[in-house]
Write a structure and sequence with these properties.
Layout lengths: L4 E4 L2 E2 L5 H12 L4 E9 L4 E8 L1 H18 L15 E10 L3 H19 L3 E5 L10 H4 L3 H8 L21 E5 L4 E7 L4 H11 L4 E2 L1 E2 L6 E2 L9 E2 L6 E8 L4 E8 L7 H14 L4 E7 L4 H14 L8 H12 L9 H4 L1 H6 L11 H9 L7 H24 L8 H36 L6 H31 L1 H10 L5 H26 L5 H34 L1
Parallel strand pairs: 5-7, 6-7
Antiparallel strand pairs: 1-4, 1-5, 2-4, 2-5, 3-4, 8-14, 8-15, 9-12, 10-11, 13-14
Amino acid sequence: MSKQLIECVPNFSEGRDLSIIQRITREIESVEGVKLLDVDPGRATNRTVVTFVGEPQPVIQAAYLAIKKAAELIDMSQHQGEHPRMGATDVCPLIPIANISMEEVVDYAHQLGKMAGQDLGIPLYMYESAATSPERRNLATVRAGEYEALPEKLQKPEWKPDYGPARFNPQAGATAIGARDFLIAYNVNLNTTSVRRANSVAFDVREKGRLKREGHPLRGKVLTDENGVPERIPGSCRFVKGIGWYIEEYGIAQISMNLTNIEVSPLHQVFEECRKSATRRGLRVTGSELVGLVPLRVMLDAGRYFLLQQRRSVGVSESELIKIAVKSLGLDELAPFDPQKKIIEYQLDASNAAPLLDMNLRAFADETASESPAPGGGSISAYVGALGISLATMVANLSAHKRDWDERWEEFSDWAKRGQRQKDALLQLVDADTQAFNAIMAAFRLPKSTEAEREARTAAIQAATREAIEVPRRVMKLATSSFSVIRGMAKTGNPNSLSDAGVGALCARAAVHGAFLNVKINAGSLADRDYVAEVLAEGEQLLVEANAQEALILKLVNEKLGD
């Protein structure tokens, strides 16, 4: 069964004393099964956003220890900062990441609230999906008045804490614990120092918008409905909260936003709406800033959006899409933007690196040539297949940008997208083939002293052998399917790159033949002969197709080269 994963993003009211931050994060890292992903201190806000992930119970334990340590080290009576806050641990949201429902995350949030409330003497309020009443769902409502309002607020029955004492804790303040969907904290930079002008842009963009007034937009009388409720002009982006502020550290004003539904309002759309509003007001957006981590797809979607705006092919590599996104959004204006540290999937995958793909070309060749039996023909077949479709993808991208072919850029962009997907899938199989071989070797090393151990060992060997067949089988299928793009580029692509399409066809055929050799050598050890017969028959068909496709493409290429 796949692991349940939740993310925790506590915000601590300390962004200047790094020793305090380190002592808090050490508490988090002390819990086995928790991975600390990001620590993002802000001097002007005097606030640090910490991100960690793991299975639910370890995450709850780490959050509890962090709240406890923050209460010991941070004195809220001395705190000053630009960001709204009410406690040493100001907010502590839990976020579903994998194989877990929001309802389950809500239960874990209340477990954390109960545990901290019983032990730490801190007033605790539950918000967002974990809220105990509709009035407490919105964090801004819960935090209204901030730390300074707590002594009076805690005396009111309607603001009795959900957990912990209804008593002012002058050092720790109060903490909001929540369960919510993934939220992106995002700041857009302006070429102004004016908070009022930054707020004007924020009001144009945020869902809440601005108050509707009679006459003058700033000084006119606020209009109300028949119930006396002030009317509002909604902003352009739903599920976006935002305000303008001045950051002394950078000497600029920013629009500070929380994006709470990136399906409806993607990050690049919010950036564009800020840019349009700023331009209308005589301002200029100079860049932007991500606080904490961001999902990979947010960066990829942004990269594709900006390439489409340029009428350029979006069939480029993942790293290129991220580079385009970073430059277009200006994410590196205030500080370097490291995708390995800022993208959540990259952080989670850091411990699952691909040893072969992470090598340079010489190291890969040296490793293949060494006395170790892996990487072997299976990994090489997958890599050759990846190179073949990469050549065709290159032809597609060159064609998309060819002078005088401007009207065809979308056609070739679609070809390039298909090629990139096939390339990435084949690259994943380079290491997968070696891992499958290593799994067979590990199974052979299992103990075999007792009958039960021998049965378990045999079962493990058979399971590993089957996977060692499935990996090259997938290589064969992917390499065969890549002929479609290669053939398309040989027929309609940039004529200056005909030879590249031809070499791509040669590589694809080599990948199919090489992978089939690996299928056959492993099939001899598998007990399930029906499965083996099915795989071998399929492989023979793929060989025939690969041979025919290669011959067709080379004939086409040679005919065109001979003209």
